[in-house]
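Re: Re: ligand-bound prediction request (bumping)

Still looking for help on this. To restate: I need the protein modeled with zinc ion bound, output as structure tokens. Inputs repeated here so nobody has to scroll up.
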Amino acid sequence: MVSTFPNPSTVDLSRLRLSIRSLQPQLVEWRRRLHQQPELGFQEKLTAEFVSQKLQAWGIAHETGIAQTGIVATIKGNKSGAEKVLAIRADMDALPIQELNEVPYKSQNDGLMHACGHDGHTAIALGTAYYLQEHRQDFAGTVKFIFQPAEESPGGAKPMIEAGVLKNPNVDAIIGLHLWNNLPLGTVGVRAGALMAAVECFDCKILGKGGHGAMPHQTVDSIIVAAQVVNALQTIVARNVNPLDSAVVTVGELHAGTKRNVIADTAWISGTVRFFSPELVGFFKQRIENIVAGVCQSHGASYDLNYWSLYPPVINDAGMAELVRSVAEEVVETPVGVVPECQTMGGEDMSFFLQEVPGCYFFLGAANPEKKLDYPHHHPRFDFDETALAMGVEIFVRCVEKFCG
Ligand SMILES: [Zn+2]
Ligand SMILES: [Zn+2]
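Reply:
Sorry for the wait, this slipped through. Here it is.
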């Protein structure tokens, strides 16, 4: 297969920025191609094929089918120096959303859409791989590209780690980015420590005793019990968590009842918990169970509680965050620049990689209100300013050159 890139000899290799920005048309082309064929988590078949074909065409060694649809590619630099290994992670999955954008590259898969920007992440990682493969003389050590499935849940990072992607050669550090419409184009959000929250989830069934709406004394009203549980759950953050720690308990679902004069025997509550501090792992599970048990017991109801952790918090290593910050400052070059306070209660399974090796996950501003490219992530009209693609490649390349020497 023939590369669609300009011949590297025709670009000024001494000027990293110019040569990376010359890749912009290809980055846009790949991103749009991926945007047209969105696939859900663990079903990224065509996406993985596309990535593999490009890597193959450029002569980059890689392994496919890891954790079903994941890919790992490796590029070794030719420069002599410390043999460090840096991993770059990109996610590939889309969402079950019907796209409402009327653009030539609109999703061709009904009901599916790249509404989070993972098409852009894959294109940025591909562009970085291409550039580094062509400029192996500029870095020592090894760069490992991790194209992972299913970030939007159930999560592809963990199974990829279990499949050994951080080993052989052993990864010393990892970086990754999220195109971010909460930040304007030309900014980068990066910070040491917690960037994104832990995501935990619960489903709770409350079992009372049904009966006639006019004869409550013969029943155990599951709606009354559920209402008290919902209210009491809000005291966890308000009264039990250190006010200097951030946390959220949200009940997003409450279902009960069939008719206005019937007392419901069963109520269902579902919710999500978010927090930054790793010390709070296990705390909410215990506290929620205590509240549900106590309220139910006081009313003579019983319950069935299912609580699980989806993703741990995204915690950046201070040294790696500083590396990304120093590089990003050179790349975005705008008065807005680097935004250190950019935490969000959103979650990300990049956290599993960051539990294994030091690293940094960061936000690359991609919103452009003037072009109406500022809808939030997961919105059916989500789209981002593609100028950010080359910026992403430049940040990654500079990180490699700085980290690997
Ligand atoms: Zn998302
Ligand atoms: Zn995302």
